[in-house]
Amino acid sequence: MNLFDLSGRTAIITGGNGGLGLAMARGLAKAGANVAIWARNADKNAAAQAELAQLGSGEIVALACDVAEEASIEAAMAATLAALGRVDVCFANAGISGAGTAIPDITAEGWNHTMAVNTLGAALAYKHVTRHMIDRAGKGDPGGKLIATSSGQSIMGVNRSSDYAASKAALNGLTRAAAFELARHSITANALLFGYYETDITAKADPRFGEWMSRRIPLRRPGDHDGLEGLAVFFASPHSDYITGQCLPVDGGLSIS
């Protein structure tokens, strides 16, 4: 018996056409889930859809979506339901690295853009996904899972990253509030506070940052993308049904160093 068979379950992953999102999507696809990628880049969407379609028995769709625009989210949700019939899981993963400014150089434009994508984008995705989940619950089919991609920076300090850290701390607050409010519908909400993973974003950073992080992390290495597959499957599966409102560091011990 496969304890983590997700056949018949449908998961949305915002920003799922690369990086951490695509790594998690691979695990869901291998477990048999139907997967809807919501992301902006059409070429990366097509490549992700083609790759994921080869990994499992579920249906894969990739939809153009900018989480900073509610109309785009609403359209993606409608298209997902039209293609796949239901949504059981939403990974609010889409995010940006922030403006990268020191506190004396903060601008309202940069701050608001980071918040619009990293925090409001997740909230609006949850808005439209949970309307569907609550409607299902009212018809005798309760349950749903919300999983946010947060960051260790939400509980730690890093230079020139105040907007990013604040956006992820707010995402943690959203997670706890959602868990409390939506429990009556058997909807759980959790956040994964990722540490240092090598991605397209970190590749643009000063190489010395990666070296410094690897020395500071107790396990002395970046996170491995393959490990994200099982993590995503666990949080999408019924085996995590009694876990809600948690903000879990996934960081090789960085947050305790």
Q: What gap, in angstroms, lies between the N and C termini?
A: 39 Å
Number of helices, counting only DSSP H or I runs of 4 residues or more: 8
Average pLDDT, to the nearest integer?
A: 95
- Widest beta sheet: strand line-up: 3-2-1-4-5-6-7
* Rg for CA atoms: 17 Å
Order of helices and strands: EHEHEHEHEHEHHHE
CATH fold-level name = Rossmann fold
- C-alpha geometry: globular
Assign the CATH superfamily: NAD(P)-binding Rossmann-like Domain
Number of strands: 7
CATH class membership: Alpha Beta
Q: How is the biggest beta sheet arranged?
A: 7 strands, parallel
User: How many structural units, i.e. domains?
Assistant: 1
Low-confidence stretches: none
Structural class: alpha/beta
CATH architecture: 3-Layer(aba) Sandwich
- Strand portion: 15-25%
Helix coverage percent: 40-55%
Explain this structure to me?
The chain has 257 residues and is an alpha/beta fold. The protein has one domain: Rossmann fold, CATH 3.40.50. The chain has 8 helices and 7 strands, in the order E-H-E-H-E-H-E-H-E-H-E-H-H-H-E. The chain is globular, with a radius of gyration of 17 Å. The model has no long low-confidence stretch (mean pLDDT 95).
